[in-house]
Amino acid sequence: MSDQVADQENKIHDLVIIGAGPAGLAAGIYSGRGGLEPVLLDMMGGGGQVNIIDKVENYPGVIDLETGAELADVMRRQAESFGAGITFDQVEKIEATEELVTLTCSSSTYRARAVLVASGASHRPLKVPGEGRLMGRGVSVCATCDGAFFKGQSVAVVGGGDAAVMEAVYLSRIVGHVTIIHRRDQLRAEKLLQDRIFAAQNVDFAWNSAVEEILGDKEVTGVRIKDVETGESRVLEVAAVFVFVGVVPNSGFLQGVVELDEFGFVKTDMNMQTSHPRIYAAGDLRAGSVRQIGTAVGDGINATVHIQEMLNASIPSRQHQTVS
Amino acid sequence: MSDQVADQENKIHDLVIIGAGPAGLAAGIYSGRGGLEPVLLDMMGGGGQVNIIDKVENYPGVIDLETGAELADVMRRQAESFGAGITFDQVEKIEATEELVTLTCSSSTYRARAVLVASGASHRPLKVPGEGRLMGRGVSVCATCDGAFFKGQSVAVVGGGDAAVMEAVYLSRIVGHVTIIHRRDQLRAEKLLQDRIFAAQNVDFAWNSAVEEILGDKEVTGVRIKDVETGESRVLEVAAVFVFVGVVPNSGFLQGVVELDEFGFVKTDMNMQTSHPRIYAAGDLRAGSVRQIGTAVGDGINATVHIQEMLNASIPSRQHQTVS
Question: What is the pTM for the complete model shown?
């Protein structure tokens, strides 16, 4: 073990932030400015799911950035400027006592008085050809983000649950036509959402259908689907494919540490505190999150302000950093 | 009554947003994009308290704007681009039934299926000479926003409650010296916060002191205070005066309509829904808000997504806007 690693592992940090998407970067900015010298852990370059967004139109205050990746870059540079640069490491295990949280990571071990979990959620992919290549070029996992780019055009929505139908209702008001592609012969979404989508005049359904391939060279031009009963394939000509076949919170390492909901999302109170008083959660993996950049940022700041209050209030022994 | 006013008053809007600060503008962006054709009411040009911030450094994603007013302007233009321009009107009374909310305003009356209250909170002013003139030029109501501009310098904090002491603790880690100016001979803040501030080596106190005037030509150079017992005045040379003598939510028109906390802040659940199912609240006037631009934006988006779900789910009679 190098001296540097040993020093790090001997230190008790005020705050470790897990994940450098918008929630984690917002927390980095606030806790960095607040003098907490946070450790910000991420295995990628930061920005999280923002990187896959083609063009961000709905993040308030930002109109001049071209892509999601550029917005992520600005947030990362802000966090860095306040001392919250990204440490490349991945959490494997968390252990928490009343006074201390210990994070065992792939490269090092961190001990902290507070931990903010902002590791996000992953969209469950279709795992078909074209999906990855055309992501952000017509393949989308966010109707609210990208729907407005397809005004008047035909699009497909894949899925039959609440999220898929809710997003299809949203899209039906904006685009020309929506085809919902669903593996079964009926929707799983709640009845009232079904009422709404069946009342829409510009929506039709490809029942019992599975996506085989998303088509297009530089951008989506269609989707090939297969009838799972007859085995027949056909191509729908669409300008976009919105995939809502589930979201998976990146919370595996929190099992047994804090309370999760039935889908693995982290339960918090309104101050973003989990069932463990030293562990907070923010952003897409928080139960009830509407999974937008702006709400992740809000969560991250909200959590950080309350973490600062918690640290100020609960640890009289914490060394006060004087400037004089 | 003009035909235009009569038309407006006969219409049932999907959503009326009260207040065009960051929370209201974020809601305008999202609900405009979502096809709700929101009415966004404000008596000023929009932006709310953001306009008084000298330089915004802690709003994630924004580094190139000079002033708070510029950030407010970008958000306003975004909202306008999605059809959510500001209507200049002021709410005087709200009446809500199970199905409908009616807002009596100074110029017109609005009926809506959902209302988002984002009218913010006002910092209680000292009401002394120099305060208004030097606001944003050394006079601040937000240590988190402005503290970093006074690294190594001497500043004053006015107030003795939790907010004042919490902000003084924050400032003491960043600036050179803090003088807390308080009208009484002891702090009102909770004990643990007091422990922290008394442990700081770069903080002193002007007890039994009232601010008479904030001094400076183009920026703050000092503050004249008066000992309320001896009547003697003296000048403290400081580069900034942070005023925390209370915050007042702009919620008077909500009395008896939705549940407020003891200070008049609006109680909501985690989806920003108040005690009335068609009235939501977002931003600084929400009970528990940490009153940052980023959290107001998050609140506004969070509220809007849930308002859209509520409208989609609860009103089967709502006309579906087809595009075909």
Answer: 0.80
Say if the Cβ atoms of A62 and B62 lie within 8 Å.
yes
Q: Quick one: closest CA in B to A305, which residue? A: B290
Choose the final residue of a domain: A195, A219, A243.
A243
Whether B140 shows a pLDDT value over 60: the answer reads: yes
Q: Which two tokens stand for residue A191?
A: 């009845």
Instruction: State the residue range of the domain holding A229.
Output: 139-243
Residue A219, helix vs strand vs coil: coil
Nearest to B145 by CA among B215, B52, B250, B73: B52
d(CA B232, nearest CA chain A) in Å: 29
Q: What is the pLDDT of residue A158?
A: 98
CB contact (8 A) between residue B35 and residue A295: no
Q: Any idea which residue has 């589930």 for tokens? A: A246
Residue A236 has φ and ψ, to the nearest 5°, of -95, 130
If you search the block for the tokens 């829409």, which residue do you land on?
A200
User: Which residues of B does the annotation mark as catalytic?
Assistant: 142, 145-146
Res A322: pLDDT: 33
Q: Is the Cβ–Cβ distance between B300 and B19 less than 8 Å?
A: no
At a CB cut-off of 8 Å and minimum separation 6, what does B189 contact? Answer: B160, B161, B162, B164, B165, B166, B197
Residue of A169, A286, A292 best to disrupt the B interface, most CBs of B under 10 A: A292
Nearest by CB to residue A25, choosing from B26, B60, B299, is B60
Q: How far apart (Å, rounded) are the C-alpha atoms in residues B64 and B43?
A: 28
State the total domains in chain B. 2
Do A146 and A48 belong to one domain? Answer: no
Give the pLDDT of residue B168: 94
Q: For the domain that residue A189 is a member of, what is the CATH number?
A: 3.50.50.60
In this structure, are A252 and A119 located in the same domain?
yes
CA atoms within 13 A on the CB side of A213: 9
